[in-house]
């Protein structure tokens, strides 16, 4: 098991449906802090993709700074916590959720996706079938979790094991860019958990996207209070601005 996080509810945003079913209350990280106080965010990040693509290895590399060929397969869900001193005023805790063996059954349960604000989808550049699965993972993700305004959560695609010879379109960066745009990925990175290539960069890219969404949401809320309401329009859609991430 990784570091198991017990204080996780503090700043992960959540949407609560109140008595009036057209009104949502959104609680945000740091919502009760004024701008001069340090900001402390906790973000739930999902790491999904086919079995053997290197999800666990990426998390271990990123959080614990090591790599091994031999991991004990775990069953259930593992958590790892990565703390980032983002800037002088901002501490970010990333709670990384590893599927830990459940990916062999395909779709994940909603409980696993619940309250996530970002995701990595991982494929293995040496196995074309793992790339073919990426669209299925993306649609499973988008169908089970959204930002409060209904837009997809930021998702970064990881082409892992780039220390090995690659198969398919991953060797064609402009095709990959096109693929990411068409399929709603915020970005893609060639990574190697083994050789520690682009793992930190990919995480940084995802956090930047999440922060963009956070500030969009923050612009919408009443700055003086720690919550605000999104009123649904006549079509039943929240009237808030869509997040562009
Ligand atoms: N060459 C290479 N092997 C890797 C890399 N990442 C993971 N692996 C290996 O791929 C296998 C599956 O990795 P694992 O992290 O368990 O995949 P998961 O099932 O997606 O969690 C293991 O033998 C890892 O050592 C990488 O970047 N390069
Ligand atoms: Mg694993």
TrEMBL record:
Annotated region (Disordered), positions in chain: 225-245
Molecular function per GO: GTP binding; GTPase activity
Primary location: membrane
Membrane protein topology class: Lipid-anchor
Annotated keywords: GTP-binding, Lipoprotein, Membrane, Nucleotide-binding, Prenylation
One Gene Ontology term from the biological process aspect of the record: endosome to lysosome transport
One Gene Ontology term, aspect cellular component: lysosome
Subcellular location: Membrane
Family label: Belongs to the small GTPase superfamily. Rab family.
Role played: The small GTPases Rab are key regulators in vesicle trafficking.
Name listed for the protein in its UniProt record: Ras-related protein Rab
Gene source species: Acanthoscelides obtectus (Bean weevil)
Classification lineage: Eukaryota, Metazoa, Ecdysozoa, Arthropoda, Hexapoda
């Amino acid at each position: 098991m990784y570091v198991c996080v017990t204080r996780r509810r503090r700043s992960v945003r959540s949407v609560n449906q109140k008595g009036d079913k057209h009104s949502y209350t959104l609680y945000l990280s740091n919502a009760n802090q004024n701008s001069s106080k340090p900001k402390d965010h906790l973000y739930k990040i999902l790491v999904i993709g086919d079995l053997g693509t290197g999800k666990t290895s990426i998390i271990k590399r990123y959080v614990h700074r090591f790599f091994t060929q031999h991991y004990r397969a775990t069953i259930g869900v593992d958590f790892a916590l990565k703390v980032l001193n983002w800037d002088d005023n901002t501490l970010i805790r990333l709670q990384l959720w590893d599927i830990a063996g459940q990916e062999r059954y395909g779709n994940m349960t909603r409980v696993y996706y619940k309250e996530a604000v970002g995701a990595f989808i991982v494929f293995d550049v040496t196995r074309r079938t793992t790339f073919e699965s990426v669209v299925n993972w993306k649609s499973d993700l988008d169908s089970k979790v959204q930002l409060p305004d209904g837009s997809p959560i930021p998702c970064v695609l990881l082409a892992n094991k780039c220390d090995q010879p690659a198969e398919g379109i991953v060797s064609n960066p402009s095709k990959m860019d096109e693929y990411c745009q068409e399929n709603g990925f915020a970005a893609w990175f060639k990574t190697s958990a083994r050789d520690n290539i682009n793992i930190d960069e990919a995480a940084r890219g995802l956090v930047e996207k999440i922060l963009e969404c956070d500030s969009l949401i923050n612009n919408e809320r009443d700055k003086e209070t720690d919550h605000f309401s999104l009123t649904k329009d006549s079509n039943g859609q929240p009237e808030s601005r869509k997040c562009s991430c």
